[in-house]
Amino acid sequence: MTTVFKNALASNIGIKLVVTAVTPSNPTSGSVTFTFSDQGTAPFINGQTIFVSGVSVSGYNGTFTVTACTSTSVTVTNSTTGAATSGTISLCPLTTNSSARTTVIGLSLTNTTSNVLLASVQLNDTVAGTTAYYVNNIVIPPNTSARVINGGERLVLGPSTNVLIWTNQVSSLDLVMSWVEIS
Fold first, then answer.
1. Could you say which of 42, 57, 90 is where a domain stops?
2. What pLDDT digit, counting tens, does each position of 60-109 carry?
3. Could you give the CA distance from residue 34 to residue 19 in angstroms, rounded to a whole number?
4. Of 3, 52, 125, 149, which is least surrounded by CB within 10 A?
5. Number of domains forming the structure of the chain
6. What local confidence, expressed as pLDDT, does residue 83 receive?
7. How far apart are CA 76 and CA 33, in angstroms?
8. Could you read off the pLDDT of 109-119 as tens digits, one per residue?
9. How far is 118 from 7, CA to CA, in rounded Å?
10. Which residues form the domain of 168?
11. 154 phi, psi to nearest 5 deg
12. Are residues 66 and 7 in the same domain?
């Protein structure tokens, strides 16, 4: 039995992005670009994990690693082809291991703006095919933090579960999350 402690740090988390266009890969490139409204700055950085859902072609939906991002688009590795429409994109700071037990032992969300934020944390169980909010539109006052999981509280997650985070404002939230994997 192996126990591993892990952390995720993310800054400038923003809104759940609405996909306005999908530029499919061609057989040689193996990448897909999702376009959205201008965020002012790139909402993701290379190497971050995002969760795409609701796109009309199912092959475009799922968890992907960002390979490029601008203020209006994000590119991921994906060999799906064909025209597609709609969908949403969220930051996914944690996808649980399919062969380990995962327990989130700390989750802090920090409002880095001078405005009141509404933040959401959603769980997406890819095995059962269900999605549920852990917190929905929690109010975080300007320049303060919300300890969503702390102290003795724990969040036990099933295998292949995505933790999704977003707010109601562009580039406004920092995240610190700690978890334990036991395999």
1. 90
2. 999 999 999 999 999 999 988 888 989 999 999 999 999 989 999 999 99
3. 6
4. 3
5. 2
6. 85
7. 7
8. 999 999 999 99
9. 23
10. 3-12+92-182
11. -140, 155
12. no
| 46 φ, ψ (degrees, to nearest 5) | -55, 135
User: 0.90 cut: is pTM over it?
Assistant: yes
Residue 58, domain CATH: 2.40.30
Domain identity same for 7 and 20: no
- Domain at 166, CATH number: 2.60.120.340
| Secondary structure string (H, E, C) spanning the chain | CCEEEEEEEEEEECECEECCEEECCCCCCCEEEEECCCCCCCCCCCCCEEEEECCCCHHHCEEEEEEEECCCEEEEECCCCCCCCCCEEEEEEEECCCCCEEEEEEEEEEECCCCCEEEEEEEEECCCCEEEEEEEEEEECCCCEEEEECCCCCEEECCCEEEEEEECCCCCEEEEEEEEEEC
